[in-house]
Amino acid sequence: MSWRLMPNDLPDWRLVYYYFCQWSKLGLVQEIHDKLVTKVRLQAGREASPSLGLIDSQSVKTMSVTTLKGYDGNKKLTGRKRSIIVDVLGLVLALRLTSANVGERAGALLLFTALGQRFIRLKTVLADQGFDGVNFLVTVKATYQLTLEEVCGVLGVKGFQVVPKRWIVERTFGWWAFYRRLAKDYEVKESHAEAVIYWTMIRLMSRKIRETKS
User: Which residues contact 41 (CB under 8 A, 6 or more apart)?
Assistant: First the structure.
């Protein structure tokens, strides 16, 4: 989407783009997002900090002008990889963008670093088989004090399976599918691409808060 094609009832596109860049650079967009995560969790009757997380990644195509991109051999596409950790409500706890050729485990380490000490109750993270490996699991436990548990489908059963808990993180990706701006990665800078995702989640959470109050 070109910034110049913004609706006429909004301020001049240059002003909107300026604040988008500034707020992204200062980390203000993520700060707003994180505060809403806490608000939605408390409103749902849960602790501010989750005790269980779910991790996964999504590879998406990028535009030709985009930097930081690579080829994902599994998905057969050139683009970026969106790695996320969500809570049981599907809210994003950590987000990192890499080129699509970066492996699941390397992306996971970036996520765990991004988590820092923000969620003191978070002890267990559910993952699929792409995050396995004894040495990797030991490293995660020793470095980040997190237990990574592999959750897989039933052996011998072909086709799509709804894996307990794992569907939650897939639903978050599904939410993004309703936003055309996230169908591809249109941003040149990865920080702007992350900001677009945060704005999407801010919109979703704001709606949830409003619906709960009404």
Answer: 47, 48, 50, 87, 89, 91
